[in-house]
Specification:
The complex is a heterodimer of chains A (about 260) and B (about 210). Chain A has about 260 residues and is an alpha/beta fold. Chain A has 11 helices and 10 strands. Chain A has a domain of about 140 residues: P-loop containing nucleotide triphosphate hydrolases (Rossmann fold). The chains are: A alpha/beta (about 260), B mainly alpha (about 210).
């Protein structure tokens, strides 16, 4: 399997902080994985993914995306090839659903027909009837529907990799579970590399083909959900698993439940 | 009073036109200048605060004093009047422009940058449309204030409706004062109403009002 993302000895320190947000992290993520990044607040999990689309810049070390050092790619160009979904969703309230989804394709100057086809295809993928939804405004949608749009907007221009920063954190439990199932379906169909940050242990176990556990800017364990549950690498991982009541029935290991 | 109007309507209208000319010229220059300054400082909060504070201090100088102060520098006439009015407007406009851009939900801005938009694209496609209601509110405020303060510009020989008011006071001519006041109030009223309509339209468009 080809390597999608590689971190080599990456350090990130925020001005004024007495510790490293990321502390000499080295990591290889293979193409097509759905890697969930799990940890408590301030463990560096969000920093990890924001370094990949250069919202933050690493202080030391290098990050490679499909073999290319991201320092050599202009941030704007880099980001157009990466899907990015955040907890606040960030839909543009003054634009219709269609215009929201079409944002990056339009920046990339796709022709109208191709954009039309893509928007329809994406809305159908998340079970929102295109004719009914494309001319609505984000304010007319429920939270769960808005995050579906956030997800497909990020997928619109066929990015090779998707970064998701606690995308379902503000969504109620029932909708969250539906969204998780849809995300799994999207991942299976697209076979893109997904990096999914969460602080919810069950979510990390349910979704991940691999799980990365972080604490204090360091990797604590990196493995399949089964490995994490059955062979916790250290006391931290063990207590984290116990606190979340992680259930091995949920384990996906990339095979589906 | 009607008789006065019928006898002197040409003079009244020429004062009105002069007034409108000063106001339009002032607004055009003010909005242009405020936009440039806003774009220069909007991504640096400390600079923005400093600029607003400086223009806030200028705004607190009484207009009559500022006109008097500038006569030795720029002389009498329309030029001085417009300079003073533009200076006053900067406070109202820049403060509202910056507040508008700052009011946009940071999550929306982060998503926009994360999608690969340039600073310019984020500004023109996301921040300005979403800040539009506050931007228009600032323009509305400065328009009304300009219409009012422009009457004092008569003291530096800039003409306009202020001439009627000051002449009326000097010669104890009540009709002159009344007509000057009525015209002034009328254009303030009409422009305010028109701008309010635009503000509502934009608020609906960006989904703040349904």
């Amino acid at each position: 399997m080809a390597v999608a993302v590689e971190f080599q000895n990456v350090v990130k320190r925020f001005p004024g902080a007495g510790y490293n947000a990321l502390d000499h992290v080295s990591l290889k993520i293979e193409e097509g994985e759905l890697l969930t990044v799990l940890g408590t607040s301030g463990c560096g999990k969000t920093t990890l993914i924001k370094l990949i689309n250069r919202i933050h810049e690493a202080d030391e070390g290098d990050i490679y995306l499909a073999g290319t050092n991201i320092k050599e790619i202009e941030p704007i160009t880099l980001r157009r090839g990466i899907g990015y979904v955040i907890q606040q969703i960030g839909l543009f309230p003054h634009m219709t659903i269609y215009d929201n989804i079409a944002t990056v394709p339009r920046i990339l100057k796709w022709d109208k027909e191709k954009i039309d086809r893509r928007v329809t295809e994406l809305l159908e993928m998340v079970n929102l009837a295109p004719e009914e939804f494309k001319d609505r405004y984000p304010g007319q949608l429920s939270g769960g529907q808005q995050q579906r749009i956030g997800l497909i907007r990020a997928l619109a221009a066929n990015p090779k990799i998707m970064l998701l920063d606690e995308p379902f954190g503000a969504i109620d439990a029932i909708n969250r579970s539906n969204l998780q199932d849809e995300l799994l379906k999207i991942h299976r169909q697209s076979r893109k590399t997904f990096l999914f940050v969460t602080h919810d242990i069950n979510e990390a176990i349910k979704l991940g083909t691999k799980v990365l556990i972080m604490d204090q800017g360091k990797i604590q364990q990196y493995g399949t959900p089964t490995e994490i549950i059955e062979k916790p690498a250290n006391a931290f991982v063990e207590s984290l698993m116990r606190s979340g009541g992680a259930d091995s029935n949920y384990v996906r290991n990339g095979e589906g439940i | 009073m009607i008789g006065y109007f019928l006898r002197y309507y040409d003079k009244l209208f020429s004062a009105l036109l002069e007034h409108i000319e000063i106001v339009l010229l002032t607004l055009f220059i003010s909005i242009l200048l405020a936009s440039v300054i806003t774009i220069l400082v909007y991504r640096k909060e400390a600079w923005g605060n400093l600029i607003v504070q400086i223009f806030g201090a200028v705004y607190s100088i009484p207009s009559l004093a500022l006109f008097a102060l500038l006569i030795p520098v720029t002389g009498l006439g329309e030029k001085t009047a417009i300079l003073v009015l533009v200076l006053y407007n900067q406070f109202l406009l820049i403060r509202n422009f910056l507040a508008g851009l700052g009011s946009v939900n940071p999550g929306i801005i982060e998503a926009a940058y994360g999608m690969g938009m340039s600073h310019r694209q984020v500004l023109t496609k996301v921040q300005i449309p979403l800040a539009a209601p506050l931007i228009i509110a600032g323009i509305r405020l400065s328009t009304i204030s300009t219409i009012g303060i422009a009457t004092i510009a008569a003291t530096v020989n800039a003409g306009g409706l202020g001439n009627l008011l000051f002449d009326g006071m000097r010669t104890m001519n009540t009709y002159k004062i009344l007509w000057g006041t009525i015209f002034c109030a009328l254009i303030a009223f009409l422009t305010d109403g028109a701008l309010k309509q635009i503000e509502n339209l934009i608020q609906r468009k960006v989904g703040i009002k349904k």
